[in-house]
């Protein structure tokens, strides 16, 4: 599992490199228009929160840190006025108990495959079509810092009204309503895409660490292994034809194991050696009863932990 | 990266002459030129790289961007973006849609939904794509479908044109 998550992480990090330039580019306008730079004190609270997570766990505190941030922004559940959009099942699981009234949309099926732009477009379209009435929104995600650290961050998104009220917007030439609307829609999708990519990379790196820990723990507990081997006989023979079996495999009747049979690895090995001789014979002989005896199948490997 | 370094050379030289202490070179301080970010979601072509001129197709008409262009927002139209690099060479990319933003500090962002170098377009695939798109347009029943097919046709027409 550690190897699998390491491979997924490597891919996520590679893809993040380009997504990051793209995402930072998409946010530049809001920075340049000085929408992001307002004083902390007078900055209005976002009313639309987009929680970026996934469907899969075993990745440390990735999802819960997004959940916590949303709870911190929304305030006490009873008086929360925010609209929450959950991307990924984990965010919903964390928030649905207290903030069920706030959650307006949930998107699932995230986390199995790396996010693509189309995923972000689906979310952005649903937000725009859902008529979510927001002035300031915030996309909450985990920004990837290094393989051992991430940072929960917010990427602000604004409605066209807020952009129009900005003091800097007058500087921009030929900004009519239609251009601004198209620009805003595309920027929303771009920012969500960027947040998804960052979050996916943080998630994979955390999962790799979690899996590494799990493997180490399992290694300590791995004490005894017992292999259950079942010798199965044709169903129509109620009593196993042990004599035919023995005659054909050159074994004494006593050596034919009872059904079902289980043994330790050493015993299995011993039986396996006997059987391999029998297998060769039974498949090369053309007509005898033993051929119908289905030989050995390893049904189950039991691990005993303590 | 080469042209960025080159753009910095006079700055660094002056810095040594006039300042006892090395000045902080932020990525946003450009003497002339314009830092261009040109990217699609899956690939970055220019990341705050200084270039001479950028020609972009937009819904309010195609236009060229030179340093100190008036700040502007625009929406990309399917077509060809041409980038003139500092050394005089130019590169052409096909873009499907996206956004253009030009800021006060001369920085330019061209973010495309899809962007590929023009020489990588498969002309035959583009033409067969156009034929399929036209079929979609004729068979479209609802307004939404028609609009989507219309966009598909536009993109493919631009793609075929770019491939020529």
From TrEMBL, chain A:
Keywords: ATP synthesis, CF(1), Hydrogen ion transport, Ion transport, Membrane, Transport. The keyword Repeat does not apply. Its main location: membrane. It is a peripheral membrane protein. InterPro entries: ATP_synth_F1_ATPase_gsu (IPR035968), ATP_synth_F1_gsu (IPR000131). It is found in: Membrane. CDD domains: F1-ATPase_gamma. Pfam families: ATP-synt. Belongs to the ATPase gamma chain family. This is ATP5C1. It comes from Cordylochernes scorpioides.
TrEMBL record, chain B:
Gene3D superfamilies: ATP synthase delta/epsilon subunit, C-terminal domain (1.20.5.440), F0F1 ATP synthase delta/epsilon subunit, N-terminal (2.60.15.10). It is found in: Mitochondrion inner membrane. SUPFAM superfamilies: Epsilon subunit of F1F0-ATP synthase C-terminal domain, Epsilon subunit of F1F0-ATP synthase N-terminal domain. It holds the Pfam family ATP-synt_DE_N. It comes from the Eukaryota. Keywords: ATP synthesis, CF(1), Hydrogen ion transport, Ion transport, Membrane, Mitochondrion, Mitochondrion inner membrane, Transit peptide, Transport. Residues 35-115 form the ATP synthase F1 complex delta/epsilon subunit N-terminal domain. The keyword Mitochondrion applies. Signal peptide: none annotated. Its main location: mitochondrion. Residues 122-162 form the F1F0-ATP synthase delta subunit C-terminal domain. InterPro entries: ATP_F1_dsu/esu_C_sf, ATP_synth_F1_dsu/esu, ATP_synth_F1_dsu/esu_N, ATPD_C_metazoa, ATPsynth_dsu/esu_N. HAMAP family: ATP_synth_epsil_bac. PANTHER family: ATP SYNTHASE DELTA/EPSILON CHAIN, ATP SYNTHASE SUBUNIT DELTA, MITOCHONDRIAL. Belongs to the ATPase epsilon chain family. This is ATP5D.
């Amino acid at each position: 599992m550690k190897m699998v998550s390491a491979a997924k992480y490597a891919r996520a990090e590679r893809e993040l490199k380009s997504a990051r330039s793209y995402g930072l580019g998409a946010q530049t306008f809001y920075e340049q228009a000085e929408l992001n730079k307002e004083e902390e004190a007078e900055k209005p609270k976002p009313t639309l929160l987009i929680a970026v997570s996934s469907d899969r766990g075993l990745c440390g505190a990735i999802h819960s840190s997004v959940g916590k941030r949303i709870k911190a922004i929304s305030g006490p559940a009873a008086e929360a006025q925010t609209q929450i959009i959950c991307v990924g099942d984990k965010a919903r699981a964390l928030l649905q108990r207290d903030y069920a009234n706030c959650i307006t949309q949930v998107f699932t099926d995230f986390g199995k495959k790396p996010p693509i732009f189309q995923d972000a477009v689906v979310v952005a379209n649903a937000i725009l079509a859902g008529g979510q009435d927001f002035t300031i929104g915030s996309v909450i995600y985990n920004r990837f810092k290094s393989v051992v650290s991430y940072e929960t961050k917010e990427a602000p998104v604004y409605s066209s009204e807020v952009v129009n009220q900005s003091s800097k917007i007058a500087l921009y030439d030929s900004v009519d309503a239609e251009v601004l609307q198209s620009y805003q829609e595309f920027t929303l999708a771009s920012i969500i895409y960027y947040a998804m990519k960052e979050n996916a990379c943080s998630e994979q790196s955390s999962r790799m660490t979690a899996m590494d820990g799990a493997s180490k723990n399992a290694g300590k507990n791995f004490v005894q292994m017992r292999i259950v081997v079942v010798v199965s006989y044709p169903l129509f023979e109620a009593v196993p034809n042990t004599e035919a079996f023995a005659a054909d495999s050159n074994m004494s009747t006593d050596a034919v194991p009872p059904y079902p049979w289980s043994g330790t690895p050493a015993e299995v090995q011993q039986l396996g050696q006997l059987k391999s001789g029998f297998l060769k014979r039974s498949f090369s002989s053309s007509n005898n009863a033993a051929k119908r005896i289905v030989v050995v199948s390893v049904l189950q490997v039991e691990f005993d932990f303590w | 990266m080469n042209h960025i370094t080159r753009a910095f050379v006079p700055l660094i030289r002056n810095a040594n002459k006039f300042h006892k202490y090395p000045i902080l070179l932020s990525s946003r301080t450009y003497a002339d030129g314009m830092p261009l970010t040109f990217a699609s979601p899956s690939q970055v072509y220019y990341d705050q790289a200084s270039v001479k001129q950028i020609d972009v197709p937009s819904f309010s008409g195609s236009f060229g961007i030179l340093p100190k262009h008036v700040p502007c927002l625009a929406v990309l139209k399917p077509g060809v973006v041409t980038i003139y690099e500092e050394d005089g060479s130019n590169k052409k990319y096909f873009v499907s849609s996206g956004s253009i933003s030009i800021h006060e500090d001369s920085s330019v962002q061209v973010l495309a939904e899809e962007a590929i170098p023009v020489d990588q377009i498969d002309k035959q695939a583009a033409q067969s794509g156009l034929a399929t798109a036209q079929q979609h347009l004729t068979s479209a029943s609802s307004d939404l479908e028609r609009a989507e097919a219309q966009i598909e046709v536009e993109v493919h027409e631009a793609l075929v044109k770019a491939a020529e």
